[in-house]
Design goal:
Length: 230
């Protein structure tokens, strides 16, 4: 069964910019997609329409069989199903790493605190930050903050994770540690859509690479075919 099914999606911003033109896309459970293409080609807009952070002008997007651009959609429920990691980590500065990871399951899902705490500790360990649970974001490197942001998204037990240029704001020496965490997630079978300029990652981890240009998916194929084409 398809996890994401987008059909004929177009997006025009209020200023007239046509960011997406008749884009169709399917994502299967367990699939890892990398979306590449020049700046301004619509990659980020496409990703943001998948969890209704951005409205669409035309078309339809289904996540888990539910239309997400629909007045009846339960946005809280959708956002638990679709985790997102941004270029800027967007952690709450006054909260510890652990509190950042615990916040949404406590406030949105209203799960019991002991359970949420235990899971948050596990997730911080999983991203290699067991010893930073009590640190505040300002005490963490960019790479560490981004790993906390990944743990925070995973705390909602999403069925898919969206990554919007997750390493673009990082100093070069921190890119690898974030990509390693993402690679481990992919190997566990997490469904992922990753907008990235990291071609090594796309080649090694993606099942399918999409190339966007001027608001359209102009080419998509397995990474071997994509990168090794003559
Ligand atoms: P990419 O992620 O590939 O760099 P984007 O999806 O960010 O591209 O942008 C696609 C196009 O939409 C670009 O022309 C960009 O300038 C435009 N755009 C993005 N966000 C907005 C916005 N909020 N208002 C108007 N135009 C926008
Ligand atoms: P799950 O996949 O978590 O088992 P289901 O798809 O069986 O959930 O849906 C359970 C209930 O929640 C159904 O009534 C379904 O219509 C509703 N539902 C699931 N996802 C959404 C969503 N994103 N927006 C609105 N309702 C939803």
């Amino acid at each position: 069964k398809l996890l994401i099914e987008a059909n004929g999606v177009s997006k025009q911003f209020a200023n007239g910019t046509q960011a997406l033109k008749n884009v169709s896309l399917t994502v299967e459970r367990g699939e890892v997609l990398c979306i590449i293409g020049p700046s301004g080609s619509g990659k980020s807009t496409l990703l943001r329409t998948l969890n209704a952070l951005e409205e669409i002008s035309e078309g339809d997007i289904q996540v888990n069989g539910h239309s997400v651009h629909n007045r009846k959609v339960d946005l809280n429920r959708l956002r638990t199903q679709v985790g997102m990691v941004f270029q800027q980590f967007n952690l709450f500065p006054h909260m510890t790493a652990l509190e950042n990871v615990m916040l949404a399951p406590l406030k949105v899902l209203k799960q019991p605190e002991a359970e949420v705490r235990a899971r948050a500790e596990q997730l911080l360990a999983k991203v290699g930050l067991a010893d930073k649970a009590q640190s505040h974001p300002a005490q963490l490197s960019g790479g560490q903050q981004q790993r906390v942001a990944i743990a925070r998204a995973l705390a909602m037990k999403p069925s898919i994770m969206l990554f919007d240029e997750p390493t673009s704001a990082l100093d070069p020496e921190m890119v690898g540690e974030v990509l390693e965490v993402m690679k481990a997630l992919a190997l566990e079978g997490m469904t992922m859509c990753v907008v990235t300029h990291e071609m090594g990652f796309a080649r090694a981890v993606a099942h399918r690479v999409l190339f966007m240009d001027h608001g359209e998916i102009v080419y998509q194929d397995a990474p071997a075919a994509f990168f090794d084409a003559p």
